[in-house]
Write a structure and sequence with these properties.
six-stranded mixed barrel; globular
């Protein structure tokens, strides 16, 4: 039973995250093209400053290549060098999660404005949504959200708010969330959920790895 639930979760998450990986790949290609254009400009500058004869006098093969590489490293701005250099010490955020007892879902413990909250990890939700009380809004001010007529979305009254969101060891100040009354939607869960951790949070990272056996998520910047 647990194995089937893990397989279903993995398939669903892979489908939702596929377009995220495509967007990240496009950004990397753009960065590589920009670095290539900068390299051509710098080579032209080197030729103008020290002349082709000087480069030729350095010898052939490996010596020329090393001299040009050192010149490029010295001439590139610090911010460009940091972006094009291999990131050997990337920051990784590690989160523990629990399985929902009645549904094939992952639940994550967070802190919102200093208050503990249990959120449903939902890659199908474009925004992070929390119950109104966490942002100082009363239930009576909002119409409860219900399922849309088509698809898996839900509709209802919503209020935008900025919160301090702590997920694992990372704290995001003035993080934009949506406050909605999801009591009807989340009533299908046995756990007392406080909202949904959406795709907007996952977009803060470049790589996501889920270990279903150890029940943890690694998010790399």
């Amino acid at each position: 039973m647990i194995s089937n639930r893990k397989s279903a979760l993995l398939s669903e998450l892979q489908n939702h995250l596929r377009f995220t990986c495509v967007a990240l790949t496009v950004n990397r290609i753009r960065l590589m093209l920009a670095a290539l254009a900068a390299t051509f400009l710098i080579l032209a500058a080197i030729k103008t400053m020290i002349g082709c004869e000087t480069i030729a006098s350095l010898g052939s093969g490996r010596q020329r290549l090393m001299a040009v590489a050192i010149a490029l490293a010295l001439l590139l701005p610090a911010d460009v060098r940091s972006q094009t250099a291999p990131q050997t010490h990337s920051q990784v955020l590690v989160l523990s999660f629990q399985y929902s007892s009645r549904r094939a879902s992952l639940l994550v413990q967070v802190s919102i404005n200093g208050k503990r909250a249990l959120l449903l990890l939902d890659t199908g939700s474009a925004h992070t949504i929390v119950r109104p009380e966490l942002v100082g809004v009363r239930h009576s001010q909002l119409k409860p959200a219900g399922p849309a007529q088509s698809g898996t979305a839900f509709i209802g009254d919503a209020v935008g708010a900025e919160v301090s969101l702590q997920v694992g060891s990372q704290t995001l100040k003035k993080y934009r969330v949506v406050a909605m009354d999801l009591s009807q939607i989340l009533s299908a869960y046995e756990e007392n959920l406080d909202g949904v951790l959406g795709l907007d949070f996952l977009h803060e990272f470049s790589r996501i790895e889920i270990d279903f056996h150890k029940q943890r998520i690694e998010l790399q910047h």
